[in-house]
Amino acid sequence: MSGTLPRRRRIYLMRHGSVDYFLADGTPVAPDTVPLNETGRQQADAAGELFKAAGVRFDRVVVSGLPRTVETASRVLAAAGQAQLPLVQEPRLQEIRGGRLSDIPKEQLRGAFLGAFQGTVDESSRFLGGESIGEMQDRALPAFQELLRDEGWQQLLLVLHGGVNRALLSYALAGQRCFLGRMEQAPACINVMDISSEDMVVRGINLAPTQWLHERERYTTMEKLLAQYLRMEGSTPRS
Length: 239
Known about the structure:
Shape: globular
Strand content: 5-15%
Helix content: 25-40%
Distance between the termini: 55 Å
Strand order of the largest sheet: 3-2-4-1-5-6
Number of domains: 1
Structural class: alpha/beta
CATH topology: Rossmann fold
Mean pLDDT: 91
């Protein structure tokens, strides 16, 4: 670098706040329409208040376009005092798409829910019998790379999803396409990355504004969803 430090720009990568994928009577809610629940709204507000307290100012905000990311970003910006910023929607960054739960045999439910988020995952692994990890990467990584090449922002807020976030963080950490499934992404968590024309630096992963130490958590989001689904189905998968 000949004594010159690299010029790095900042990305704050968030997951959307908490949602309810099942109604009280057990009816599943379409993932493309599900809104934040009350906890999710509080989490988004807390993230925005944190950004405000830290003096963080965004010059661009990108969401996947699904309602839970739009609502999260809107609440973050309102709490941060930056509600005037428009939201740019990038559908290629939508969450990995699952199949129909009713089509998955009971003995395969555990693998369908958890298999895509364990260890270094093969790209052929499918999420809930739907889209594969590789298919999700095929659309999400080019969209992310386009954002990295765009010189029109200095401080970017990305509000996306747990699976897509793992793909982007894995790419940043490894410097190449891969998928590290064990990086948990709590609702409304914040990840921090700096980028330059030469490199990427990951400064923080899964920072949860309402519980920094994850002191109330022992299970992953997908483990809790599996348990909730099984309770509502009144059955247990066979090992």
